[in-house]
Structure prediction request, 329 residues.
Amino acid sequence: MRDVAVVGGGVAGASVAYHLAQRGASVVLYEREHLAAGSSGRSAAFIETLYTDADRVRWTQYSSRLYEQLGVPFVQNGKLQLAHDEAQLARFARTLELREDDGARVVGPAEVAALAPRLRVDDLAGAVFGPRDGWLDPPSLIDRLVEGIDVRRQEVADLRAAGARTVVVATGAWAQELYDVPVVGERRTISLFEDEDVRAGETPLVVDPVGDDGDSLYLRGDGGRLVLAGFHSERHGRDEELVPLLAARWRDPDALRLRGGWSGLYPLTPDGRPAVGEVEARVVLLVGLGGNGIQLAGALGRVVADLVLDGGSDLLPDPARYAPARFAA
Ligand SMILES: Cc1cc2nc3c(=O)[nH]c(=O)nc-3n(C[C@H](O)[C@H](O)[C@H](O)COP(=O)(O)OP(=O)(O)OC[C@H]3O[C@@H](n4cnc5c(N)ncnc54)[C@H](O)[C@@H]3O)c2cc1C
Prediction:
């Protein structure tokens, strides 16, 4: 009998399997379609660390370092967290006190324009720039994480039949099919544009706040003259027209041509925080990673491996904040 069966072949399941195997556990990973078939394969795959929540900073910096070490292709041309006024800039700059130094710093509008020449900057107070942030290819990341793992293409319909001492549920937006946890899939769309200026494809990650509650326009160069953009919100039922937001931020919106796009699901809990922890003897959940799962999964996979093998993790100082049981009340 295996020590652990992990259900779900997205970044979450792959990272759990990786960290368990690193510690010598015998693991089987079940995926009913193919690796990266769910949200992970439809992601914009920003790896960003400029958060103002201490857990998010700790987790995303851990993930980013892990992905660097794994040697997966990882484009690190930085992230600009734009700020529209001084109060917003001061709020975003709080990340500088929370993080392990990686050269992140506050920059003015002129430097924003130098780093991302296709952006309009005249309405900005500045930005926080994280030089090591970037993006990667989730299927390549998952392939690397599961190297040497026994991966089976099989649906798990019953946790008791998974054939292992412990079962980890990492089934993203489909979590409720296996366990009674309030995770729902919220559709989000990415659009791909081509610009007439070749510098567009080198644009670093850009996050431009829409209001003050975490909603944002996001974009990044995608090589060549391509730019990928979307509207991010972790609030339920919230969506906004992308094109006017992008037109307001792009220096020359008439130069953009829509070339395609796709949709996927953000796996969201009611409060937007992941659901992580044991829910009954030898059943552990890692679901509800929302719109930031690629960058959170590196660390949360380690957290779950620690929970399975040790019962606690130094990367999870406040387990109750993420415990699936918080929804029971
Ligand atoms: C448009 C879009 C843009 C995004 N942009 C970013 C971004 O820039 N940065 C970022 O960090 N995150 C981003 N995300 C979020 C990120 O993609 C998700 O949070 C993350 O992929 C969730 O990973 P997961 O492994 O939990 O779920 P998934 O990748 O969905 O994996 C779950 C897997 O479980 C399998 N499965 C389900 N039920 C069963 C079963 N019973 N038996 C066997 N297998 C099963 C599914 O087939 C699926 O492959 C974005 C998401 C979307 C949709």
Remarks:
- The two ends are 36 Å apart (CA to CA).
- The chain has two domains: 2-41+138-183+270-327, 77-133+187-265.
- Residues 202 and 221 are 5 Å apart (CA to CA).
